[in-house]
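Example with several molecule types.
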Amino acid sequence: MTQSKSENPKKTAGGKKGQGSTQKVRLATVWLGGCSGCHMSFLDLDERLIDLAAAVDLVYSPIADVKTFPEDVDVVLVEGAVANVDHLELAEQLRERSKIVVSFGDCAVTGNVTSLRNKIPVDDLLTKVYHEGPGAVPRGGETDKVVPALIPRVLPLHQVIPVDAFIPGCPPDPERIWTAVSALLAGEPVVLEDRMRKFG
Amino acid sequence: MNRADLQTMAQREQEKQARFQCRLLCCASTPCLSSGGAAVQQALQDAIKESEASAEVAVVSTGCMGPCSRGPVVTVQVQGEDDVYYENVTPETARQIVADHALAGQPVQEKLLPSDLPFFAKQTKVVLSNSGLIDPERLEDYVARGGYLALAYALREMTPEEVCVEISQSGLRGRGGAGYPTGLKWDLVRKAPSDKKYVVANGDEGDPGAYMDRTLMESDPHRVLEGMAIAGYAVGAEQGFIYVRGEYPVAAKRLERAIRAAERRGLLGSRVLDSSFSFRIDIRIGAGAFVCGEETALMASIMGRRGQPVPRPPYPAQSGLWGHPTLINNVETFGNIVPIIEHGAQWYAGIGTEKSKGTKIFALAGKVENTGLIEVPMGITLREIVFDIGGGIPDGREFKAAQTGGPSGGCIPPQFLDTKVDYESLKALGSIMGSGGLIVMDDQSCMPDVAKFFMEFCMDESCGKCVPCRVGTVQMYRILQRITDGSATLQDLENLEDLCTMVRETSLCGLGQSAPNPVLSTLKYFRNEYEDHIERRTCEAGVCEMTEVPVMALVEELPRRIRAAA
Amino acid sequence: MAVITVTINDELVSGRTGQSLLELVRERGIDLPTLCHLDGLEERGGCRLCMVEVGATNRLAAACVTPAQEGMVIYTHSERLVRYRRMILELLFAERNHVCAVCVMNGRCELQREAYTIGMDHVRYDYLTPDLPMDASHERFVIDHNRCILCTRCVRVCDSVEGAHTWDVMGRGVNCRVITDLHQPWGSSRSCTSCGKCVQVCPTGALHAKGSSVAEMVKHHDFLQWILDGREKKQWATRNGDPVEGGR
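Resulting structure tokens for the full complex:
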């Protein structure tokens, strides 16, 4: 099933899978420029994780050992802001291969703490951290071979690819995550109540 | 001084002028001064002195004559002959003019401007009728051409109400841009109950490329003062302020002198022209904020407060300076008052179109042969302005658009060249009359780039009080910057259009409300250029360098740049 | 005062002349978002959140500075208005560095609240990320320009209620900044009485008590009405040191 990017922001995961189908929802979670706190909060779903495991196949995630982002993903939760070219590439890839892309947590939604470096020019930043910072200068000397090239400004995910739903919060608390994920699994649009949309 | 004294003064000055066989009028307005006008004037004077011809030939330092791009301009008036104009006069030409033309009657051919030039022939000088003919620093020159007689007439023969009726019947509308009926405004202030009222002339002209008000203040300051005094009489004010843009030192100096001279002769101050009417005028100098051209911000500035607009109502006519009813008109509007009182409302209403009466001064700039200051009757077509008066587009290039109204206005494409220039027609095209800036663009102008220029101006000049203007202009500017550097996406275009409508409808004052106009009008007529910039990353006009890439393309672009730098 | 009738969202409502549209709308229990408005301070009309549609032409007017007039027809929550309000909030979030996660007012911030109430779950515009300082030179308070939305409540409360006029605004456009004493460090201000009114009225984390950490700052607005009421009733008036009538 191919669908062009973000034509319909209210796309749903259940979508056109046959009603009686027993096929599980293919869920992915991605970790871009963030602290992994959103994933920690995700794990705080606790016993609900068992229900989740019954309903989904976790096809890609920092907590699963999968090297490449797979095809035909139904829902992907993206934690973190877009900070370097690797993030850009992965963002483009996950958009192409997923039906519903969700900005998961404040860094993906606003840039948040990751974007605090935006006041500083990239070159100054690299010099400060890798050349003047504590410890040895990384071998090879050229930072672009050691770390992926940083893009000039850290961007929220939706300024890079079309995003279908947003779960703000730093981190979003498990209730919020569960509300959103249950909606996504049920094939319904994500509707968070007032307080669940609060940043921070 | 009374009316009879005024007439005596006029007569004496006329006789004095008639004693000279030849008068050399040398423009001393800012454009001519900046192209060497002062040296030309000195050369004229030296040459006359050396030829010992001071009794027959006089040099007069005047205001603007119009063809500013051809300055310094000198006019030669020989008794019994038509005026002759010289362009691009150098000190050497000046000496030649004195020797050959003034003394020997042989015009210097190579710098001569043909007198039947359409630049002059198509103009109607009502407001600028003295401009370029009198010495703005001499009260006598103004009086010799009938100056202050209109004020004398109004004070003696008309009641304040009759003055307001006269202005209403003339059909005069505000020349600051919005075109509110002047007579109606005067009458509102006249009827407003208060023991104290004020008259304010708005000379904070800030549109890029516009200098109508500056020219009027520099070339004929007494006309503005007389217009204000008549307004003071009509509305019942005893105090006027003229707010002069800080970047106009020459205008401020000449106005200051004019006020002093008029006060000394009893034409301003207490008991004007021996009547019971008193009217003082003070100058206030702006400090470089475009927003102070907005009337409520201007009043705040006059009162010594931060130059920021306040919401209307209350309108200045109800509660203006220090809470008193205040009449605010543009300098050019005041320049129209004397001719209306002098020749009557009916005469004035005979010029122009049905809804836009009289003449309008434009500062014609950009890609035309003749740039300069022109005064044309309302209802003239854009084509006549650009191709007849302006002499067409240089270097055989194509006309692309005319920008009117400065940062609040819009761009008019070639298919509307035959539109009549008046308030309503320009508005219907998505532009505005504005204060009178008119910039002609040829096919080497890039429309998104033009829009970006004006948006940057609005962004810099936003006072910061309301959010849509303060932040909205920055966001719109950044999108335009992305469009012109090659990194924009179609989503940017959509956001730009949304922002334009929102900022227009929600901003507090005219600056923000009209800031999106240059974008909206170029989008309306030149949308393909925006799309070319975004989808094909090309700028047909060759203005934008398109050195950036959309964010996704950074995946290849960034490593390439890093390698290139290493 | 004369009674007037205004139609709000197709309902007839009576009000009094001299009332603003905002007062009238709020009296009806309709929630209209505001940021620069604060009961007790003179109106500014700057945040543009309280704009309503007026009359048949659907012209927009800021309710806080528009006097209610007989026969007015207004709408407070049309699709267009809600859309514009959200855009304005997004512009505010993009203007400075509003990082809620690390803000002293997280959870009690008026800007944050207006955003989630209206349904703003992301910002479509460029974050401008200006490089702005904090001034912690005052012994009790801090001004963090990264969180300031230029509502000027601090300027107004300091001028009209405290009477000190320590605060004012400098610069223009996005470069505007609230300043103390002609842009001197707050701690060196000689006009500041350290009363803290500015801190209490500030809607965001821009002004806060020194030492407060993330989500710790609590502000109270009710003092303002209490002071203004007391003044009107001459509650604290004295003559030769003795309370006068109306005082306690």
